[in-house]
Amino acid sequence: MIRARGLVHTFHTGQGKQRREVQAVRGVDLDVAEGEVVGFLGPNGAGKTTTLRILTTLLKPTAGTATVAGYDVATQPVQVRRSIGYCSQVGSTFSGAYAGDEVVDHGMLYGMSKRAAVAKGHELFDRLQLDGLWRRMPKNMSGGQKRRLDIAMALIHSPSLVFLDEPTTGLDPQARINLWQHIADLRTKEGATIFLTTHYLDEADALADRIVIIDRGEIVASDTADNLKAAVAGDLVDLEVAGPEQVAITRDKLASISADVVVEGHHVRGRVPRAGRAVPGLLRDLEGAGVALESIEVLRPTLDDVFLTLTGRSLRDAEADAAVADTDLDAGGPGPDEGGPGGSPAGASAATEEGVSA
Ligand SMILES: Nc1ncnc2c1ncn2[C@@H]1O[C@H](COP(=O)(O)OP(=O)(O)OP(=O)(O)O)[C@@H](O)[C@H]1O
Q1: For a pocket test of ligand 1, which of 44, 53, 203, 219 has the largest count of ligand atoms closer than 8 A to its C-beta?
Q2: Which of 42, 125, 218, 229 has a CA that sits 20 to 30 A from residue 281's CA?
Q3: Could you confirm whether domain 2-228 is CATH 3.40.50.300?
Q4: What tens digit of pLDDT does each residue of 8-55 get?
Q5: Looking at the domain 235-300, which fold is it?
Q6: Ligand 1: residues whose CB is within 6 Å?
Q7: CA of 26: how far to CAs of 11, 56, 200, 284, 347, in Å?
Q8: Residue 93 in contact with residue 149, Cβ under 8 Å?
Q9: Where are the domains of the chain?
Q10: ipTM given for this complex
């Protein structure tokens, strides 16, 4: 469904002495098979949206090639747009129109008859729990309702491949979980292939068959969440003991099965690959050495642990770095890329952003 090779995108910002290059995407390869749900995970500024905009034909790559639903993004953009649904980060609804009219108009832009668009629109409103909101303006909807309306817009022409850019950002926990269920249904009920960007670890974990992690414009991992966790991080074993002598013995024993032992007060911690197998032997050793444990905790690795192992930074630190970098960039002022295809209102859909109907 998606095949990308060596995608690069460089933005130019500022002018004259302030002119700077931002290498947003630096050689991205991607393969997404039909029916897969792929979570594209990375901190703020990692290059997720830029990659998505290239794949949805909203931005031309500086280098590299990509085919989406069998069509080349550079030479067959109209065919690509016809085959995909795209839900941008800020949505695509016009707040002053009725929700139902928006969805129908959107379908008609794709060449659907009014009758077919109305029928499909009602079906989507039912399925996405928007019943009763056909004649409500998006500005009078809750965040979760608006997001579900954006998804209805993206699905009106029954695309087989759907791109969702940070679908749940800004929603409260209950609305997020509700939307997850709808996204999961897209695959099971519509048979859609889904490519979604997120910087929420739990979202990627809950929804995606496969997780592709991007950092500073480069793909650093691609696998199932379970494999990523098993291969990169190991389980965190936290042993609490009574006194300094016991701490020293425990540290040495844990160091025999863990490469990164840390002592904090009476706690001795370290990552242990497949702890379930290794810990019983460790406990026997400790008992033999006269160590009485106060407590033991074994924590499964998280995707943040995976990110930390791969990049040396936690996702949260990476987001803070990106915020600082963006502040520096802002000081350089707007450049020629701003307002181009990449800088145009992200609210418009793939079909309408450049005024092209499918
Ligand atoms: N129009 C633009 N002009 C200049 N730089 C840009 C432009 N759009 C994005 N960038 C920069 O490119 C880099 C990648 O941005 P991108 O929006 O792709 O990241 P992201 O992973 O989607 O982040 P977020 O999670 O915050 O949406 C960032 O450093 C960003 O500041």
Answers
A1: 44
A2: 229
A3: yes
A4: 999 988 888 888 889 999 999 999 999 999 999 988 889 999 999 999
A5: Alpha-Beta Plaits (3.30.70)
A6: 11, 13, 22, 24, 42, 44-50, 199, 326, 329, 337-338, 342-343
A7: 11, 18, 23, 50, 25
A8: yes
A9: 2-228, 235-300
A10: 0.97
